[in-house]
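S1.2 Input.
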Amino acid sequence: MKQVQMHAYGAPEVLQLADVDRPDVQPETILIEVKAAGVNFSDILRRRNTYFMPTPLPYVLGAEAVGVVMETGPGVDAQVYPKGSLVLAILPQGGAYSEYVVAPAMFCVPLPPHLDAFAASGIFVQGCTAHLLLHQVAGSIEGKTILVHAGASGVGSLLLQMARLAGAGRLISTASTPEKRQAAQKFGADAVVDYTQTDWPNAVIAANGGQKVDLILEMVGGDVYAQSFSCLAQGGSMVVYGAASGQKGFIHSEHFVDESHHLQGFNLAHFIGTKMDLWQASLGAVIGMLAVGQIQVETSYQFALQDAMEAHRQIEARQTIGKVVLIP
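S1.3 Output.
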């Protein structure tokens, strides 16, 4: 089978297509033919060796794969995972950039057969992140004005849709290009601001009728993180769940005293490790919303397995919208 391997850290060119033996099913595992492998920013951090968890070499990237059950090992209930059924495989140790994967059954989630495999690749990382941010971390959002940074991204696009479903008030987003701003509006933003402009916080306030926002969901870092406080209402909250710019963000502690701001952080891997029951409930909720069409996962950026390095290049250049998918 074909597989994208990484034998060194560095630029996208370290991702190399290789021919390897198809893995054999083991007890308590499932052999899956991959139809869609999700590409996430965490893959890029692993490739650079800047991820918060160690990345051993050689390594096969990809924490999520959607595919068809080919074979089940001893100890796996074949009625739960019948041959030919669609499953989401969660792969904490990587491996999704492959034509086939063997995944522990405990990390495989049966999916409704009518779900699009590409869209389903956005359930785990993007979907659960958005759902948990809104329903477990941010507190009550009903009626609140919310600023969602990078509203055309995989998580941002789902945050906008889920916030609307949860009864949020005015939704404002940021995006760097006309195409991304148009996409953020499609996903539910009432107004979209260009955060490459130096006065973007004032534009956010203007878009909110001259008022600062109640909640900010932030994943850019650097100057965007620091400037976000200037458009956050007194007593408002900001939740940080990423730093895509790779830049550190600083804010004076006096700001929290002067404005009574609240700052929280979120890491999906940490959340899963400490609150498994809440994460599992979130996963089920996201699958349900996708199955009945309440949310949509944008998957127009699709790449063949051998083009994994190009997928990484485009994500790093901020050229993509929604979920990026590899097709084995």
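S1.4 Remarks. Residues 128 and 282 are 6 Å apart (CA to CA).
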